[in-house]
């Protein structure tokens, strides 16, 4: 671990709360975890909401699209705000603003108003960019991929816990005498309140960098215009955005439709379907961290080229897993292949952000925002498949699997390091010895 308390850490001890680096790390992943409650709290309650608001398949598809659409623009803006304001102020502002539609969605009484609230809530998804930005500031390059993956994975775990807990909160509210139509509305007050608590904790107990907040320290001046423009021309950024579109994009899509899919396909109760969908999210407990850990280890030996190969491989396995999930003939096999593709999907998430901070270290926020927005573009586009009347949910999963395999090939041929030729030559010379 770094000996200087004002420098990024070189080791990640997840059991430590000592120092501003580890305190910020734990508050950051916990805040992202809470954001998932607000962002996807409605997803496991959709069977009830569908009946209450009389939603058809096309309307549900639009809701799925809306749930990720606002995040696209928000992630691009948030990345730049992190570079300017710092993650502490940016996260606090997002939490305070995001809590409003979460707690007020209960006022929706028809399809249109519910759709607009869902769109507003989707802005909370920009929290991921701040999480990755803040973690990148607190850890040294050799451990940055692992730290980002653990923080992102434990935060994403909120998606699984949400699928399990929100039906319980819903049932408890029904149990004390409220109707189902009232219960889903009151249930959303809980994640909104948690977001307000997280806003206080974040502002009070974190710092932008190990050396202090942005307004307390001297920062190197930024070169305007040309530098950012060069980032936008960098194909590596867009390759990573594509990769994230088919891994994280699929994750948030599955978070949105899984409970409803299990209810419709296997006639499960809302609570049981939420538990099954929660298993998917619970893979984040270790799988995303595993991707970051492997990427850091591969990177020490093979550099960015090795990380790119690893990302391509896990995407390939995710794609095959999705196709097998779609072809499952029984509930048991569906759960098995769901866990299979979830493992590699979440490893792909971690691997992607083990590469992202190294594309342009002077524009970490901007690059993180673009790649993160790519995830939501993928989620939005996948939503159209689940909306289409002529395509079943199983067909949609199968088509997405094929798309993931295609993207894995694009990643395979992308040179993520400008020194790739030198690395390959060195490997060849060592092999010939």
Mind explaining what this structure looks like?
The longest helix has 40 residues. The chain is globular. It has a single domain, classed as Growth Hormone, Chain: A. The protein is an all-alpha fold. Helix 3 runs parallel beside helix 6, helix 7 crosses helix 14 and helix 11 runs antiparallel to helix 16. The chain contains 17 helices and no strands. The C terminus is likely disordered. It is found in: Cell membrane; Membrane. GO terms for molecular function: nitrate transmembrane transporter activity; nitrite transmembrane transporter activity. One of its GO terms (biological process) is nitrate assimilation. Its main location: membrane. Belongs to the major facilitator superfamily. Nitrate/nitrite porter (TC 2.A.1.8) family.
């Amino acid at each position: 671990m770094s000996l200087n308390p004002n420098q990024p850490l070189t080791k990640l001890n997840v059991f430590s709360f000592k120092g501003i680096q580890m305190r910020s790390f734990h508050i950051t992943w916990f805040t992202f975890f809470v954001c998932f409650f607000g962002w996807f709290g409605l997803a496991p309650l959709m069977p009830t909401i569908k009946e209450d608001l009389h939603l058809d398949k096309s309307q549900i598809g639009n809701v799925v699209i809306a749930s990720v659409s606002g995040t696209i623009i928000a992630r691009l803006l948030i990345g730049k705000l992190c570079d300017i304001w710092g993650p502490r102020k940016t996260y606090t502002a997002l939490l305070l603003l995001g809590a409003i539609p979460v707690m007020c969605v209960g006022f929706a009484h028809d399809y249109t108003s519910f759709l607009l609230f869902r769109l507003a809530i989707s802005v909370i998804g920009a929290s991921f960019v701040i999480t990755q930005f803040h973690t990148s500031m607190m850890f040294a390059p050799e451990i940055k991929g692992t730290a980002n993956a653990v923080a992102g994975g434990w935060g994403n775990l909120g998606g699984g816990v949400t699928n399990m807990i929100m039906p319980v909160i819903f049932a408890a509210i029904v149990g004390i005498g409220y109707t189902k139509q009232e219960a889903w509305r009151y249930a959303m007050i809980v994640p909104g309140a948690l977001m307000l608590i997280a806003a206080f904790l974040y502002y009070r107990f974190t710092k932008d960098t190990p050396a202090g907040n942005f307004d307390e320290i001297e920062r190197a001046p930024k070169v305007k215009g040309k530098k950012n423009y060069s980032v936008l021309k960098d194909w590596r950024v867009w390759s990573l955005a594509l990769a994230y579109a088919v891994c994280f994009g699929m994750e948030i899509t599955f978070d949105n439709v899984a409970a409803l899919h299990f209810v419709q396909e296997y006639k499960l109760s809302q609570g049981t379907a939420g538990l099954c969908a929660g298993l998917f999210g619970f893979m984040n407990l270790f799988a995303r961290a595993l991707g970051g850990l492997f990427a850091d280890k591969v990177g020490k030996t093979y550099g960015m080229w090795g990380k790119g190969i690893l990302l391509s491989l896990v995407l390939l396995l995710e794609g095959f897993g999705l196709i097998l999930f779609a072809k499952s003939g029984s509930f048991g096999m569906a759960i098995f292949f769901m866990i299979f593709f979830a493992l590699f999907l979440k490893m792909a998430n971690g691997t992607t952000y083990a590469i992202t901070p190294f594309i342009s270290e002077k524009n970490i926020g901007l690059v993180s925002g673009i790649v993160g927005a790519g995830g939501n573009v993928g989620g939005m586009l996948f939503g159209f498949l689940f909306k289409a009347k002529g395509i079943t949910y199983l067909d949609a999963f199968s088509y997405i699997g094929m798309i993931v395999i295609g993207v894995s090939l694009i990643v395979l041929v992308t040179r993520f390091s400008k020194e790739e030729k030198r690395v390959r030559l060195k490997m060849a010379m060592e092999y010939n010895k």
